[in-house]
Design brief:
Elements lengths: L1 H26 L1 H13 L1 E2 L4 E2 L3 H41 L13 H57 L6 H32 L8 E4 H18 L3 E5 L6 E4 L1 H18 L5 E8 L4 E8 L6 H4 L10 H5 L8 H11 L3 E6 L4 E8 L16
Parallel strand pairs: 4-6
Antiparallel strand pairs: 1-2, 3-5, 6-7, 7-9, 8-9
Helix pairs in contact: 1-3, 3-4, 4-5, 5-10, 6-7, 7-10
The structure holds adenosine-5'-diphosphate.
């Protein structure tokens, strides 16, 4: 339609130009002479065929002009149609069809628009999914926390209720009740404390107080501080470091928390084990690997991928009176990743190893080579 209308308009324009030019030539003898001279001077062949009559010139120019205008109008209309199509697709997506993408391939800039729109939709969907995941994980966090707080709180209320209702026979019994309530209250406090640290460490902008740290010295101090407890459980702790001192830039207090947790886990869960080893291994100029190993009961294969999840406790640990919150390893993982490193675990009948890769320089992030936990 657009093409036909354009052609009709152009024909009318051509006709009016012809009429105007004709009129001008008829009424202007000077112009006629000029045209005559040009006509005589432009010819081809031995027969002096005169190429140029003014009608010829005019017709050639007009045809070129007309074809140009028709082409330009049609191309413009075609682009408009493509744009309308794209807008239609956009409305379709905006109406909730988020798994739809603009399917057609076009040429040039329009294709770039289509590609950009499709990738924009992809990233919007990805961030909506991420938002939903975070929302869901917050709900789970609240459910877990309320469950874990309710259990000791019920005991506390129960025991204090017995005292309040004078349901005791001796002072000894009161002491027993208050003792239980006290230990349950401490359990609640440790959960709240862990939770506080966990949420703090999850924030990627948590400030670290970075200083140069002597890793060997730190491990020796940690081993010394656990020696007594290990001795009571019939276990020993050894430290293996290279001859050269190993230094890294890190937050000593936060890293200390990580290793404290790993060593106390080794003592708590390494049932039947005899030995805990802390190993320091500078694998390159940029990276140090520190591992905490213990023998004794292994972590079941199915649990290996989950021990770093918050509130996750291997089934057997739940039933035992180890008193954990299931947040220790989640905190350890967050602290290690705040330092730009990564942590993983391997466990078999002989050994359970928690391995930490840390960058030597602060601000450097190490590429995680450990894709899946191994058994
Ligand atoms: P918590 O110690 O509070 O339960 P963690 O996050 O520190 O929580 O540990 C999660 C679970 O991983 C523990 O409940 C335990 O079952 C398991 N685990 C951790 N360290 C070891 C270990 N060295 N040997 C065996 N199991 C372990």
């Amino acid at each position: 339609m657009e093409g036909i209308v354009t052609v009709v308009i152009l024909l009318l324009v051509n006709l009016s130009v012809i009429v105007i030019l004709n009129e001008m030539i008829q009424t202007n003898p000077g112009l006629q002479d000029g045209i005559f001279i040009i006509k005589r001077s432009v010819f081809i062949g031995p027969t002096h065929y005169q190429l140029w009559s003014w009608e010829n010139i005019f017709i050639v120019l007009m045809v070129i002009f007309d074809v140009g205008v028709v082409y330009w109008r049609l191309i413009r209309r075609y682009h408009q149609m493509q744009l309308r199509h794209i807008i239609g697709e956009l409305h379709y997506i905006a109406n909730g069809h988020f798994d739809h993408r603009i399917p057609f391939t076009l040429k040039g800039d329009t294709q770039r628009v289509v590609t950009s729109v499709n990738s924009l939709v992809d990233s919007v969907i990805a961030s909506i999914d991420e938002e939903r995941r975070i929302e869901k994980s917050k709900d789970e966090l609240i459910t877990n926390v309320s469950h874990d707080l309710r259990t000791p709180l019920t005991s506390i209320i129960g025991y204090l209720g017995l005292i309040e209702d004078h349901q005791y026979h001796s002072e000894e019994e009161i002491l027993k009740y208050t003792n239980t309530a006290f230990s349950k209250a401490k359990q609640m406090k440790s959960l709240v404390d862990d939770l506080f640290v966990y949420t703090k460490m999850r924030q990627t902008d948590t400030p670290l107080s970075i200083a140069t740290l002597d890793v060997d010295q730190m491990m020796e101090q940690l081993a010394a501080s656990f020696e007594l407890e290990a001795g009571e459980k019939g276990m020993s702790i050894s430290v293996e470091t290279p001859d050269e001192p190993v230094h890294i830039e890190a937050d000593a207090e936060k890293l200390g928390r990580v290793f404290n947790n790993l060593i106390s886990n080794a003592l708590k869960y390494g049932e039947g084990g005899k030995h805990i080893a802390l190993r320091v291994n500078p694998v390159s100029d940029d990276e140090v690997v520190i591992s905490v190993e213990n023998d004794g009961q292994k972590i079941p294969r199915a649990a290996l991928g989950q021990v770093f999840e918050r509130f996750y406790r291997v089934e057997e640990s739940r039933s035992k009176a180890t008193g954990g919150t299931g947040l220790g390893l989640a905190i350890a993982q967050s602290i290690v990743s705040l330092h730009g490193g990564y942590i993983y675990v391997t466990s078999d009948d002989e050994l359970t190893r928690f391995v930490i890769h840390l960058p030597v320089k602060n601000g450097v992030k190490i590429k995680n080579q450990q894709v899946k936990p191994t058994h």
